Amino acid sequence: MELTVRDAMQLGDLRRAKLVAGSDGLSNIVRHVSVIEVPDAYRWFKGYELFITAFYSLREDIEGQLRMIDELKRNNAAALAICYPELYMREIGQALVDRADELGLPVLELPNDVVYINIIDPVLQEIARRHELALEYALRMNRLFTQMILRGAGVDELLRTLARELRAPVLVLDKHYTMLNAYDPGTSPPPACVTEYLMGRLDDRLSHILRVVKDFREPTRHFIQGVEGGRLGCIAMPIVIDNIYKGFLVAFEVIEQIHDTGLAAIDHACLGLSLIMMKQKAIGETELRMQGDLMDDIALNRYSEEVLLDRAARLGLSLSAKRIVLVAITDAEDDLYKMKSGFHTRDKIDHIYSVIRESLRHENPSNIVFLQGRQIVILPELENASDDRSANARARSVGAFVHRRLASIPNIRRVQLGIGRHHQSLSGLALSYRQAKSAAVIGRYLFRDKPTVHIDEVESMDLFLSSLRADQAEAYVEVTLGPLLEYDLKYHAELLRTLEACFLYGNQAQKIANALYIHRNTLSYRKQTIKKVLGMDPFLGYNQFRIQMAVLLRHLLVGQLFHSTF
Predict the structure, then answer these.
(1) pLDDT at residue 346, rounded to an integer
(2) In 3-state terms, what secondary structure has residue 167?
(3) Which residues in the chain come in under a pLDDT of 50?
(4) Domains in the chain and their CATH numbers?
(5) Hey, which of 118, 127, 277, 512 has its CA 20 to 30 A from 479?
(6) What's the pLDDT score for residue 345?
């Protein structure tokens, strides 16, 4: 802990000092000791100094003394110790006392027989001693967290250790502000807002702090305003891997201010968290690849049920009660021209996948969630559901749970869920998977107001589309939408996205503009450009039917319902 003015007043001849003003600043940090003997000494101020002076050069200049007090405060001085006031100043003036009280700058009065060296030496020795202790503490924290990581400790254990060291609640979030872990050591009941944060419910105050923090590479102090009793301090630091921030560590100063030793602990903890997250990322990528291979084999019916069950068991997955499939797609998942132009939406899809996976693990640990290409595949544990009706009800319950969870997370766009039919055998999962994909894609396009769609609700459209070959669908899309796709690729005009929004929202121009984040005049201009590029009006009669069919086929192609190479 760093030396404060209050602490310094217990050292050397400062024990004989009388506090005459600025009691609100007794917790100011003292890092240096210096002497003021000239009127313009403020030119050399560096901050955190305890200044000693006889005010000889300003002994009869009250305005000069007040200017010096202002400069001390402006330059973040710790305190001012006035020696020999009866020899040169007669007394410390009331105007100086009032100004120091107003600014919260401690002013100490010392007896006439005090010698400067009896102030300077004890204070500097104590500063050096505390620096040595802080260094030893930092090394201890480094050893502690390093040993924890080497023996395979996870985020939970590291966070508990840090919270107990700081005697403060701590929170770890990913870069999307989604809570990954939290721990409260229980040393004191936290304010209501901190309780909400520890449950993963962030507000604009903390979100704003995190937006600022991501540009730093060290712990920084911030304040949450409007908390019971005024404001609450917190220390925040980004978790960085390969110079890319991956999340945040936040500690809340519920009991006391976190000083330099605590900042060192937070710094080392962030390093430890980055190493753990790198390890988890490598393991997660391997698991994803193996799970993806398993899902491919299930979808293509490559192996017997016995072999698939055995492979799943080796991955820690149980397929014994999985007989129905849900598929989730996002608004970004099906944007073809962005795929062709190299615009990556993987980061957003990974985030949604993580939220769904962790949420469903809490809902039932036996639920299985795959990231299959650009789609999220859910195999819900059917529990006691054994017939079609109860299995469909269970699948819809899982879908509703997912949507409730996603609705509570900021910065997540619309997610469409499709549900396939229930099958009695594991081999039926391949068909349920294809049906769920089809239901999600068709449902997203035809049922904008229904976030979850069962294959039975789009059966007629699915039967018609499934009769088409991939090359037929590709040719139709190329002929009908080709000019628009090429125009978008060349000019990044987002005309196809605009066309889709027009179909989704009908003639509601303001809703279309809001969905696209553009002005209504821009929307009008884009519609005219669409007509010009296509050489027809796609919003009327048979032309509209043709274009809508092409757009739907394109969604299905991107969703790989035709095994397309498009």
Answers:
(1) 60
(2) coil
(3) 333-344, 563-566
(4) 5-126 (3.40.1390.20), 152-281 (3.30.450.40), 300-463 (3.30.70.270), 470-558 (1.10.10.2840)
(5) 512
(6) 54
